[in-house]
Write a structure and sequence with these properties.
The protein has 424 residues and is α+β, with helices and mostly antiparallel strands. It has ten helices and six strands, in the order αβααββααβααββααα. The protein has helices at 2-27, 36-46, 48-68, 106-172, 178-213, 240-250, 252-274, 311-354, 360-376, 382-417, and strands at residues 31-34, 74-79, 93-101, 220-223, 279-289, 292-302. A four-stranded antiparallel β-sheet has the order 2-3-5-6, with no helix packed on it. It has a two-stranded parallel ribbon with strand order 1-4. The longest helix has 67 residues, at 106-172.
């Protein structure tokens, strides 16, 4: 009996442990370690906005099929049911078939317009791809460098937490003053508040990044990246004119603006052609017609363009051409401004960053470790210890921010030129 109770108790304990473990695992957010190349692969396969835009291309291709189709012929048939006059009038039957023919090349012009619409849908797709890819890469780098900054806060917070515990014990023993304890507490609370604000920023960027690669909102992203731009001259090696020419040739928003001119120019030709009437040819048969039995006739039908010659649509088409030309010119000027501004900024950041000694970060990390050891040995005062830590934190955060600014400036040049000059 006792053995059974012990066994039942053990089973109960195990079930509680197992269910608790499963619950803990279900509440633990997933961590996804990912490289930039892997992130781009997931983005291309899963991003819903790209999939939606792809359907627009398919719809535009379907319009080409529609434009190629000819008008269906019209057919009519009538059969006599009753007549009070001529004997046998109910045997009357009449057939008619007619076909509409378009004039002035309207069909071909509609086909050409549909093909331009396909180009426009494709340009919109690739421009959306360019924009979202730029956002994805920027988010990736932003998460990485902010997490590096978060590690600095974690190290300092953990260190000060341990120090505070020791100080409280020493204060209880009367070995140190309350002022020192409060000073550590104040510094710790300040760091925790700063860390929380930094984490809010990381969470915001991660949320956008997760949407781009279609990961769950609870997934924690850990970018795997090795920053290796120290001392490298990248921007200065590429002539500005090469960047500008690349933007002219590869910016899909610029191509889209150019196709608007082509579309509106062709549409003007279509609207002028619309002023020329189409015509219908018909063939008619009447079994008991007024001209005798088995009457067979042919006819033509078209409207007379005395009043409506499509003047309004022709005028609108001319206005649309002028408008699209100015829009294209404005887009060109915007491209030139984007390339010039971002080239200057990237060049300035490159020169600034290359003035830093690459060994500085390693030396500074070693120094702060020695500072902590000396403080534990009471070789330096509390204020000196905290000053060193503040300097370490500020310099590390600034260096992370500078590295992020430099690499995002390269990504910005990729974006404004529409060309992956500097992809890692």
């Amino acid at each position: 009996m006792i053995k059974k109770l012990v066994l039942a108790f053990l089973v109960f304990e195990f079930s509680l442990f197992y269910s608790g473990t499963i619950l803990a695992q279900s509440n633990t957010p997933d961590t996804l370690k990912i490289t930039l190349k892997q992130a781009e692969g997931l983005f291309i396969k899963k991003n819903l906005r790209l999939i939606i835009q792809q359907y627009n291309i398919d719809n535009a291709n379907a319009q080409i099929i529609t434009a190629h189709l000819f008008n269906n012929p019209d057919f009519s048939f009538s059969n006599g049911i009753y007549t009070s006059g001529q004997s046998g009038g109910y045997k009357e039957q009449a057939f008619s078939i007619s076909q509409l023919f378009t004039t002035a090349g309207k069909r071909n012009k509609n086909i050409q317009l549909a093909k331009i619409a396909v180009d426009q849908a494709q340009y919109q797709f690739f421009d959306l791809l360019r924009t979202l890819k730029f956002t994805l890469r920027n988010d990736f780098y932003s998460i990485y460098f902010q997490q590096q900054s978060a590690k600095v806060y974690n190290e300092e917070i953990n260190s000060l937490t341990k120090t505070l515990t020791v100080f409280k014990e020493q204060y209880q023993k009367g070995n140190i003053s309350q002022k020192e304890v409060l000073r550590i507490q104040s510094q710790l609370y300040s760091l925790q508040a700063e860390y929380n604000n930094l984490q809010v920023g990381i969470d915001t960027v991660q949320s956008e990044f997760n949407m781009l690669i279609k990961e769950g909102p609870s997934t924690i992203i850990e970018p795997e990246f090795n920053y290796d731009l120290d001392g490298k001259e990248i921007v200065s090696k590429i002539p500005y004119q090469q960047l500008l020419d690349s933007a002219y040739n590869n910016r899909y928003d610029l191509k889209l603006s150019k196709t608007s001119i082509d579309y509106n120019t062709l549409n003007l030709k279509l609207q002028k052609a619309t002023s020329i009437p189409d015509f219908s040819l018909s063939l008619n048969y009447d079994k008991l017609g007024g001209y005798g039995t088995n009457y067979l006739g042919a006819g033509i039908e078209f409207n007379l363009p005395f009043f409506n010659r499509n003047q309004g649509n022709i005028k609108q088409a001319k206005i649309a051409i002028d408008q699209s030309k100015f829009q294209f010119q404005n887009q060109q000027e915007q491209v030139e401004s984007d390339v010039a501004t971002n080239y200057k900024g990237a060049l300035r950041l490159e020169k600034l960053y290359n003035t830093f000694d690459p060994q500085f970060k390693t030396d500074f990390n070693h120094l702060i470790q020695e500072v902590f050891k000396n403080y534990e040995k009471r070789n330096i005062s509390l204020l000196e210890f905290l000053d060193f830590y503040d300097a370490y934190k500020s310099n590390t955060l600034q260096l992370n921010a500078l590295q992020l600014s430099r690499i995002t400036s390269l990504e910005q040049l990729n974006y404004v030129t529409g060309t992956p000059f500097f992809n890692k």
